[in-house]
Design brief:
Blueprint lengths: L14 H8 L2 H22 L11 E8 L10 E8 L4 H6 L1 E5 L2 E5 L4 H12 L10
Antiparallel strand pairs: 1-2, 3-4
Helix pairs in contact: 2-4
């Protein structure tokens, strides 16, 4: 169950005010909570099982992203869901995986991409879709 807490606050819209929010512990804690309790369970639920340990190898990490000037020139903190399975790259985008049984072609499962699409679709913050 997702819990939403609404509070009133006044945001200083200067770079320093928004920047302070972007690097705050509370924002990062919220990102980690979302990754652990919404993104990770969904990714595990749709992950292929035939490949061995992939479904159990999802990890949430705290991250700091330094701004890309052309897009968003601001440092911000958040969380990242990754998969540490040695074959994760091949399972995610497809390719050949070598196991004890030999080399086998693996179709692309796009588990992390589908998880991101799920988060976008179920977010309370609706953002406009970019045209591709």
């Amino acid at each position: 169950m997702t819990r939403v807490v609404l509070t009133r606050f006044r945001l200083n819209r200067s770079k320093r005010g928004i920047g302070g929010v972007a690097v705050s512990d509370r924002v990062q804690d919220t990102c980690v909570h979302l990754a652990e309790h919404k993104a990770k369970p969904y990714a595990v639920s749709i992950a292929p099982r035939a490949t061995g340990t992939y479904a159990g190898a999802f990890v949430v990490q705290r991250i700091t992203v330094h701004g890309i000037p052309a897009e968003w020139p601001m440092t911000r903190r958040g969380a990242q869901l990754t998969n540490t399975d040695k074959a994760a790259k091949f399972i995610e985008i497809g390719g050949a995986v070598t196991t004890a049984a030999g080399t086998q072609p693996t179709p692309a499962h796009h588990t992390l991409r589908r998880t991101l699409e799920y988060l976008d679709a179920t977010s309370v913050f609706k953002r406009p879709r970019r045209s591709r």
